[in-house]
Design brief:
Elements: E1 9-21, E2 29-35, E3 37-39, E4 45-57, E5 61-71, E6 76-87, E7 92-105, E8 109-118, E9 124-135
Parallel strand pairs: 3-9
Antiparallel strand pairs: 1-2, 1-4, 4-7, 5-6, 5-8, 8-9
Length: 139
């Protein structure tokens, strides 16, 4: 069976400055300063970001995942973060966020947030990508 078929699906990706979990409701989050781009005052630019994900899986279990930020111009990875998604039931929707911490954007241009999951047999699948633009003061 293909790796993509036995790993979780990414239903939603939202890049934001911060995510706050509700103190009173389970699986409810407030997303702060949702971004499609970033205005850099100077370059390289450092930004603390979070990646909010809505995942689904037909099978319960723990799945290792990772997020890469890739500079589209040269295919270089500028940030790499591992995470674990744990599904308690079959066919569960799982909202979660990944703390990307300090992300360094060396230059203005187009970047991609890429989400991967690893299957139990060790195979890896790209499950989603989200474009992100860094703009310089000159633009």
């Amino acid at each position: 069976m293909a790796v993509a078929a036995v790993t979780p699906r990414v239903r939603t990706i939202v890049i934001c400055d911060d995510v706050a979990a509700s103190r009173t409701e389970d699986r409810v989050f407030t997303l702060k300063r949702v971004r499609q781009h970033l205005e850099a005052a100077s370059l390289p630019w450092r930004a603390t970001l979070r990646l909010f994900l809505l995942l689904s899986s037909p099978r319960k279990g723990k799945y290792d995942g990772k997020v890469l930020i890739v500079d589209e111009r040269n295919d270089r990875v500028t940030r790499y973060v591992k995470f674990v998604a744990e599904f308690e039931d079959d066919n569960e929707l799982l909202p979660m966020y990944v703390e990307m911490s300090e992300c360094v954007f060396p230059e203005a241009g187009h970047y991609n947030f890429a989400v991967f999951f690893t299957a139990r047999d060790g195979g890896e699948a790209l499950k989603a990508e989200h474009p992100f633009t860094v703009r310089s003061p000159e633009e």
